[in-house]
Amino acid sequence: MVTLLFFIPPSTFSQEENCLSKLKKAQELFDSGLIEEIPSMLEECLKDGFNKEQNIQAYHLLIQVYLFDYNQKKAENTMLELLSLYPEYEVYSNDPIEFINLFNQFKTIPKFSISINPGISISDISLLERFSTGNLNNLKSEYRPDGINIGVRLSFEKYFTSKAWFTIGAAYSYSGYKVTENMNFDRELLTFSEKMQYVYIPHYFNYSFIQYKRISPYILAGGQFGYLIKSTGEIDKKSLVENTNSSISSDITKSRYAVNYSVIAGIGIRYKIPTGYLRANVYYTLGLTDYIKETSRFSDSESLFNYHIDDNIKLNFFNFTLGYSYIFYKTSKKTLTEDSNLP
Fold it and tell me: Do the beta carbons of residue 279 and residue 268 sit within 8 Å?
């Protein structure tokens, strides 16, 4: 700490002390009704001399000076500067009524936000048609999640109102599933597992239907394009008669459709914090396109040798994400129509 203080120029401390002294002096002058020197006294320090709290206090004081001096134009411009720098600024109940009325003439709305959303997913495969080297009537195969999958999404949110917005993003997911079946007259247990790396472009609408203090739940619906980067399949055979097992793995990307499309539906909740939101989403993605290439089903001689043929399936997932959104605001003066609706 001593070393850090040594490298901070003494002029920095003197400037801060000088600006703080000016702010206190300006407040004393205002309380005494002497306002002429206050704007010039605070001008330089507003550029680079106050911390956040002092800056807000100085703007607050300047606006009152201009209102007291009947300089409506400068009062409006200074209020616009204050709200542009600190869009989440709120008035206090003990503020002068003139200050509150001026504040109410402006609107500060979220324009857009950017967010990062890490999360997990669980596969929920839709089986459309079975294929097997064994008797289809005796199959007891079952698709299951292959653990908990991980992923992350970067998103851009465009706000139409504070309650309605559109999300588009870019996501990466590492996911998988497994299926088991008895083979060779129930003498062997075959397990096929697949691990997939995907990039997605999700796009969906959001609507917040209620707000309670800082918390607001919302619904979301839309879709997403998916592109398969790589898929690896593993076949594991375990003898139910002898204590032996064997396994092979291979790159099976070419036997899968690279592009697919899913629909999205879910719910979320957001919690307002300074500069943005903390979010939690729970949603389901339903695959609309086939995943397995029909022409590649019988082309893998290694899989056929090990008694595995791909079923006709679609990919679905249960998803849960946590995220943070940083908001960019837009501040403007209300129109005459909006002003007339003020309480």
Answer: yes
Q: How many CB atoms lie within 10 A of CB 154?
A: 13
Quote the pLDDT of residue 306.
56
Residues 291, 258: contact at Cβ < 8 Å? no
Q: 3-state DSSP call for residue 274?
A: coil
pLDDT at 67 (0 to 100): 93
CA dihedral 280, 286, 287, 288 (to 10 degrees): -130
Among candidate residues 148, 150, 155, 157, the one with its CA nearest the CA of residue 118 = 150
- Exposed (0-12), middle (13-18) or buried (19+): which is 56, by Cβ within 10 Å? middle
Alpha helices in the chain (DSSP H): 2-7, 10-31, 38-48, 52-68, 72-85, 97-103, 301-305, 336-340
Beta strands in the chain (DSSP E): 106-123, 126-129, 142-145, 149-159, 164-183, 188-208, 215-239, 245-251, 259-273, 276-287, 312-314, 316-333
Tokens coding 248 = 């092979």
**Biggest alpha carbon distance in the chain?**
100
Residues forming a β-bridge with 208: 218
CA 249 from centroid of its chain's CA atoms:
35
Instruction: State both tokens at 7.
Output: 């490298």
The pLDDT tens digits for 282-316 are 999 999 999 988 877 666 655 554 567 788 899 99
Closest by alpha carbon to 23, among 5, 38, 1?
38
Q: Kindly report the CA angle at 185 between 304 and 244, in degrees rounded to 5?
A: 75
Report the distance separating Cα 330 and Cα 293, nearest Å: 49
Q: Which residue has the tokens 């005459």?
A: 336
Whole-number Å distance between alpha carbons of 170 and 268: 19
Query: Quick one: tokens of 244?
Result: 């032996």
